[in-house]
Amino acid sequence: MSPEPFDSTILQHFPQCVAE
Length: 20
What we know:
Blueprint: H1 3-13, H2 15-19
């Protein structure tokens, strides 16, 4: 479980959260 791929998924699932 790497934070790299996980981050990518979060960006796609929670783009608004990332913008904040």
